[in-house]
Amino acid sequence: MERLDVSDGFDVHDYRHGLKLLKQDRGSMTLENRHGFACPACGERFDRLFVSENRENTFGKPSSPICLVRTDERLLLLTH
After folding, report:
1. CB atoms < 10 A from the CB of 57, how many?
2. What DSSP state is assigned to residue 16?
3. pTM of the full predicted structure?
């Protein structure tokens, strides 16, 4: 299973072959993991990836485990 590499930041275009864009606005996007990529935090397969450049984000009550990864420019929230 290929793990998302965030060691030098994160560029969604490097993984576009396996991620489907579900929603996008000015500073964030939500993607579905269709390739079975592994989470950069825990190494397990994740279902959805939320990528944000915004300083603040609000989420509802998660119904599944989540992992957070911070790069210099983005926050990645992965749901399992």
Report:
1. 11
2. T
3. 0.91
Q: Please state, in angstroms and rounded to a whole number, the distance separating the CA atoms of residues 59 and 5.
A: 25
15 phi and psi angles, rounded to 5 deg: -120, 15
d(CA 55, CA 16): 24
Q: What is the pLDDT of residue 64?
A: 87
Which amino acid does the sequence have at 41?
A
What does the domain layout of the chain look like in residue ranges?
12-79
Q: CA Rg, the chain, in Å?
A: 12
Asked if 17 and 3 count as a contact pair (C-beta separation under 8 A), the reply is no
Express each pLDDT in 4-44 by its tens digit.
999 999 999 999 999 999 999 999 999 999 999 999 999 99
Nearest to 75 by CA among 49, 48, 53, 43: 53
Q: Which helix (H) or strand (E) holds 1?
A: none
